[in-house]
Design brief:
There is one protein chain. The strands form two sheets. The protein has a seven-stranded mixed β-sheet with strand order 3-2-1-4-5-9-6, with helices on both faces. It has a two-stranded antiparallel sheet with strand order 7-8. The protein has nine helices and nine strands. The chain folds into two domains: 58 residues; 204 residues, Rossmann fold (3-Layer(aba) Sandwich). By secondary structure, the chain is of the alpha/beta class. S-adenosylmethionine (SAM) binds next to helix 4.
């Protein structure tokens, strides 16, 4: 139905009238009235959504991506699905672990994960870690992961303020991993995180970050960040963009997989050696 609504701009008045006539003939007035309501309502909601995105940018508003809102939302999230509500398919997840995570997270790394949630990627990171530190704005997630991974002696979990890496020593970390987290973090907080990356990464260390690319215009409750703004910030902090991609190809199947549903990207940030 959304496609039908989206298609309306392509139709001239005569075509629209013919479509309306056909709909009434085949479905009756009541159904057509409801369709009209849906049609008008969706046009208004699309307009409001677009206006929200531009207003947020022009006025510097946090939208629904402030640290306090993120904390509220994730503390009260129903984590029963373990984060797999954001996994489009089992093949996608396996391929991401094999072709995105493993090649970029060497074994025996000193790892930080920002925003582990319920541990969707944590279970694949911990076995590759000499030391693993999970840092999340949500105390619910920290408690959940601490319980779930209590058996892993090299793992610890703690909360933060949503823009810092408390308790992490300078130049101590090889890899920072964060998936489905920076998509919800605004540029001002990303800037603070990048200062922290510069501080805690060892020379040559890397951060693998999944993020939005277009300041929320394609939906998905994305933050105000665009790729070009993110890249400029990374460079301004003395870090480098080592890799940036929106999809990867699985060498075993030849299938292409998108990193996210909303035109998202993964950026690998390097601290110069
Ligand atoms: C969509 S969930 C993703 C969880 C997990 N990474 C996954 O992929 O299943 C977002 C996670 O990021 C955390 N989060 C949101 N904003 C954050 C911030 N500013 N700093 C640290 N964690 C944050 C939330 O508490 C939650 O655990």
């Amino acid at each position: 139905m959304k496609d039908l609504i989206g298609n309306r701009r392509r139709l001239d008045l005569g075509r629209k009238a013919r479509l309306l006539g056909l709909t009434v003939k085949e479905n009756g007035l009541f159904y057509t009235g409801l369709l009209g309501l849906y049609y008008a309502g969706s046009a208004v909601s699309n307009l409001a959504f677009e206006r929200m995105q531009t207003l947020r940018k022009s006025r510097g508003l946090p939208g629904v991506n402030s640290r306090s809102l993120n904390a509220e939302i994730w503390n009260s999230w129903n984590w029963e699905a373990g984060g797999d509500e954001w996994t489009p398919s089992a093949e996608w997840k396996t391929s991401l672990v094999e072709n995105v995570l493993k090649p970029r997270v060497p074994e025996a790394s000193d790892i930080i994960e920002i925003g582990p949630g319920a541990g969707r990627w944590t279970e694949h990171l911990i076995p590759r870690a000499s030391r693993y530190q999970g840092i999340d704005i949500s105390s619910t997630c920290v408690e959940l992961c601490a319980k779930k991974f209590a058996h892993a002696a090299q793992a610890s979990f703690r909360t933060n303020d949503g823009n810092n890496l408390p308790g992490v020593e300078d130049a101590s970390v090889g890899i920072i991993w964060s998936f489905d987290v920076f998509v919800h973090i605004n540029l001002a907080d990303i800037a603070s995180y990048l200062d922290e990356f510069q501080r805690v990464l060892k020379p040559g260390g890397r951060a693998i970050i999944h993020h939005g690319t277009n300041a929320g215009h394609t939906g998905g409750w994305r933050s105000d960040a665009t790729t070009s703004e993110l890249n400029a910030l990374i460079e301004s902090k003395g870090l480098q963009v080592a890799e940036q991609f929106k999809e990867w190809t699985d060498p075993a199947t030849g299938d292409k997989h998108p990193v996210g549903l909303y035109d998202d990207a993964v950026t690998v940030i390097a601290k110069p050696a």
